[in-house]
């Protein structure tokens, strides 16, 4: 073989020699999530959706877990009354928002037959008369104002302007005054506040990030918390109730958690899933204090006052297919709760957030209910609302709950990017989950709480 | 060049090559490694976040591929092979009342140049063996499809049915076994490199959320092994 021939052959064989290692490296299995473990103790503070779900995930990946719950029972802001109606009436989280979500999949897996979409008609109070969405969008007499409102709901993600409140934005686009209560019910009240308390930039961030969808579902014959009981039965045994955490010390190698009754727990990691209201209220002390950026985030993210009521009627006075009734003053959003859940009972629920919740909080329950019945009378004149009211009601004021201080977080002005800061671990020892720390656009939802728990568990496994 | 224009150009070039020197028609099949880390992480995230699943969604492994094309002999040591191929990866988990399925379809079209170093090869009485180096390029369309209980997954309530276009470059080694004057068998192993495949919203469609450390975007290096059956269409003097 002469030299030229040798070089030619090497030139041909060379790429092949190079190809094979590349082939093998391309075939190599990459490091994925399933193999990750954490062989230490984790204290989870809060036995709500995020806490129970995180406990399950952590245990599956090697961690020893205990859950400290301040209340007398687990569930957090998922709470149902099982005696008021012939179905569990949800006092807290009541809608399953978005079809592509962990929470939806949890329901679809465990109880697909119970999962029902909201399929009725929504009514909106305009100039004292209840109207359908179709009327608002299409009625020539409204000159497109209703259509504009619904377009705005779809377009927060593409908001091109600068920071202002949602209320200011509706003013800027000259939304007619008579639509403002409807707008408040659709946007502000739905997100846990009112339009004057929501920031457009945070709304834009939320709408841009969210991918779960806007379809809404409910469980027609079981409570939301029962899903967690079905999915994570072993984790309930880990919950220690009535453990009010007052201090977390994370300067030492072991993180220390001290409760109000003086009990001390130590662990390698702490996962905090308490409501934002607890952090805002400084109910838990941190040693060393929280970083200033996190403290700022806690203050910047809104946390709403919220009231849920249930009114039982002997007969319905609403149209057969009614889902939601929006635009009231005392209660911005009513829902015919019994639709799809009971054929024997007629129950209207009401959700008041922000200023509406404050107004109701200033009254006694009896006064508030009397005024609500009067409001319903005005909405449905001549239908005998008073006489059909069975005088049975429930009144759940989340703002008065000492371990919550409110309902759920909302996108307040200046709160964009703050949820990621809230979510960030401290010193690789203290981790944060809960709906308020969801930075995927799903804050204020059970799914958002579960997503945040998933994220925090990954952080712990990788810490 | 726009994608439709590029594809039209590619198609015309392939037809032209086939018409001008249609020496072989090739059909082939084999396996493509589709263990793509960035995408499999989405699958693992889906499983990780749903500990209640009795049967987890398997990560993407090997996909089947099917090839069709021509081989035109440009010179004794240089063949050109326009080729179209279809690659299909399936992963599914069937739990009671809850079925998750993931399919990634890939349609590729391109031109390969097979270079035969004349120093190698073996002539026997009954057949001829010629190894070759393959260099090529083309375009691909990835069609990821996610279904839950046979319903197409949604992202923001919109059905998730993306078509993702990308370029690709091929580098491979093969061997041509000429078994008769009209029939060759050609095993080929090759690496396909796709510089930038962005399965936008893939994690959201499958997992329900974009999660840090999950990437929909990936530069992909994919090995594949295929066997082609090559049928000679025009009898010519020996080309090899």
Could you characterize what this model shows?
- The complex is a heterodimer of chains A (463) and B (240).
- By secondary structure, chain A is an alpha/beta fold.
- Chain A has 2 domains: 41-77 and 222-301 and 411-461, 3-Layer(bba) Sandwich (FAD/NAD(P)-binding domain), CATH 3.50.50.60; 82-88 and 116-219 and 304-400, Polyamine Oxidase, Chain A, domain 2 (Alpha-Beta Complex).
- Chain A is 35% helix and 21% strand.
- In chain A, the strands form 6 sheets. In chain A, strands 8-7-18-19-20-17-21 form a 7-stranded mixed sheet. In chain A, strands 10-2-1-14-23 form a 5-stranded parallel sheet, with helices on one face. Chain A has a 4-stranded mixed sheet with strand order 13-12-11-15, with no helix packed on it.
- In chain A, helix 2 (49-60) runs parallel beside helix 17.
- Chain A starts with a helix and ends with a helix.
- The model of chain A is unreliable at 17-30 (pLDDT under 50).
- Chain B has 240 residues and is of the alpha+beta class.
- Chain B has one domain (3-179, 192-232).
- Chain B is 15% helix and 57% strand.
- Chain B has helices spanning 3-20, 37-49, 202-207, and strands at residues 24-33, 62-75, 78-95, 98-115, 122-123, 128-148, 151-152, 154-155, 158-159, 164-178, 183-198, 217-232.
- The two termini of chain B are 37 Å apart.
- The mean pLDDT of chain B is 84.
- Classes of the chains: A alpha/beta (463), B alpha+beta (240).
- Chains A and B meet through helix 1, helix 2, helix 3 and helix 17 of A and helix 2, strand 8, strand 10 and strand 12 of B.
